[in-house]
Structure formats: structure tokens, C-alpha cells
């Protein structure tokens, strides 16, 4: 048996870095599609690729031509099929690379604590409104976006452009209000729109008690650079969604910290 020649094999630090980066990339991609319908689609694509190897080995000409044609346009098909997951992945990269995410640098360049004081003024009426909504078990969905694109919401929302206040939020989500059924969009210092219809998440691993309000809140954070605050109509429980992940039954102190961080 001939000896294995390893003389041409050179493992360097950059090779190790390459393996680690690829592993991290695969892990992030797995987190993006975990629990969604995209997992089943990916399994289907893998089956087609394996079937193609079998067909070539057996020289099945007709199936070879069909599968080869499909695989030739595979990259375009993957982009079309996984466009939402690719969008979420690019948003994730953008969020992590954003200078605004690094609070120490941001405060260094902004120069004072005025931003923190303004932040508290925006957060307090939201937290106070949530206390009232929780007590009365009034369902609510509040979405926070960094960059508000009016054209994205104009067809499914009522444009408001109003100053954030406790009483306004309470009024919007009252069951007798014509605006209560849907989400409120907040950007900067303003309530930009209300009664917004949002896309639902495809995640199949959510708790069974999650209704349309929770699924819409999670779905909007999957497809956009947004966070969502959900108040359950059944229990009054407050949940907080970000990047497709949700924290359940959070306290008001934790809610204030989360809003302060994300604002």
C-alpha cells in the first residue's frame, strides 16, 4: 500500500481563518432559515443535486438534460427563491457594520448626553402606554424602523406623522378605534403611520399561542431593519421581536432597556 504523500499540504494561519469564516457563514445562514419554509426548499435542492449525480452515473440521457438545464440556472433560481433570506442576511451584515450600533463611538462623535435625554423623552410615553395596555389587556403592535419609507406603507397604512404620546397610542389601539386593527410605525420622534397590514412570518417553530399580531411583528423584523413591540390581547403579556427572534413576557424595566438600546 503506497504511503500517503503530505509533502504538498501546507496548513497556514490563513487556512484556519478561512475554515472559521466559512463555518460562521454557514452558521449564520442556518440561523436565518431555521424554522422557516426555506429549510424544506433547501432540502429539495440538495435532493435534486444528488439525483443529478445518480442520473449521470446511470447515463440516463433524458433526465440528464432536464437536470443539467435546471442546475445551469440554479444560481438565479436560488436568488429568486431565497430572496427574503438573502435580504435578511444583508440587513444583518449592515446592522453589525453600522457605526450607529457602536454606542461608544457614537457618543464620542456626538459629543454630549443630549441624545440620551431625547431618547428618554421618546421612550417614556411608549412604556407608559404599554403599562396601560397591559393592564386593560388591549392588543397592540408597535414597530420601530430606522429609515421610514413612506412608499412602502402608503397603500396599507393610515399616514399620521404625529408626535409620540401615551394617550395617542392608547387611543389608536382601543377596540372602538378604526385604527386599532394593525400596526403603528414609529421612526425618529414621530408616529409615522397606523393601522398597517404587515407580512406574516414563515417561521413554523413559534409557540402555539402566537396569533396574527405576534406573527406580523416577527415577520416585519425578518424582512426589514426593524424591531417590534407586541402586547397580547389575551394575556396582556409584552413581547419584543428583533431580527426574527422574540423575547416573551418581558418586564417594563427590560422593555425600557431594549427601547433605549435600539433607539
TrEMBL record:
It catalyses: 2 ATP = 3',3'-c-di-AMP + 2 diphosphate. Belongs to the adenylate cyclase family. DacA/CdaA subfamily. It holds the Pfam family DAC. The keyword Cytoplasm does not apply. Residues 83-252 form the DAC domain. Its EC number is 2.7.7.85. Catalyzes the condensation of 2 ATP molecules into cyclic di-AMP (c-di-AMP), a second messenger used to regulate differing processes in different bacteria. The gene is dacA. GO terms for biological process: cAMP biosynthetic process. SUPFAM superfamilies: YojJ-like. It is an enzyme of class 2 (transferase). Probably a homodimer. This is Diadenylate cyclase. InterPro entries: C-di-AMP_synthase, CdaA, CdaA_N, DisA, DNA_integrity_DisA_N_sf, DNA_integrity_scan_DisA_N. Keywords: ATP-binding, Cell membrane, Membrane, Nucleotide-binding, Nucleotidyltransferase, Transferase, Transmembrane, Transmembrane helix. It comes from the Bacteria. The lineage of its organism: Bacteria, Pseudomonadati, Bacteroidota, Sphingobacteriia, Sphingobacteriales. The chain crosses the membrane at residues 12-30, 37-56, 62-82. One of its GO terms (molecular function) is ATP binding.
